[in-house]
Amino acid sequence: MSVGSYVEVATSGLFWQSLKTTLAVAVSASILSLLIGFVIALHLARQPPRRRILLTALILVPFWTSILVKCFAFTIFLGREGVLNTALSWIFETKIELPLLFNRVGLLVGMTNFLIPLATLPVLASLLAIDGTIYHAASVMGAKPGRIFWTVTVPLALPGIFVAFFSIFVMSLGFFVVPALLGGPQDQMLSSLIDFYNRQVLDWPQASAISVVLLAMVAFIAIPMALWRRHQG
Length: 233
Fold this sequence. Notes:
The protein is mainly alpha-helical.
């Protein structure tokens, strides 16, 4: 692999399109997973310890399931003749075929299913670290639940929120199986482009150059985050 390979990558329209798609999908999946994970973490934080342990284990069960198996399960659930469309057709008594598969919707569903547990746990750790007397003091001072949430819960949970977002964002950059099985042709990410050059075109220098670029992107985010967490600790 020579400098020429990086020059070809830098001047490739296909690379820039895949990079744009990768960033857009990673940001969308990270935000969606974080929002759902925050709601779940908030619910878990309010549960008794024993129930919280049980519910946390249930949240981790999908994470322990093979991502390949889950993708094939989603094809059955989200297909035009799948479980969801069949149920909606029965409820509304009309034929419904929502396009939920082989597009951005199916891709985000598959990615968020995998990322939600990873988003939930750091946020939950931050929520459990909040001293309960702070909520009591805010309530005594006359603050309503909504105000307590925005002025106490969210600010004090920010470390966990930041860690969760950047962790799942870094992981989202390298997704391959989910885009390949649930995404459409317009949703192929850098990992798919690497596979294309490696197995279809047999241009290994180009594939290696894109791999290095992807690794550099991950390192650019992961290393500062690791240093920040070490400093916080």
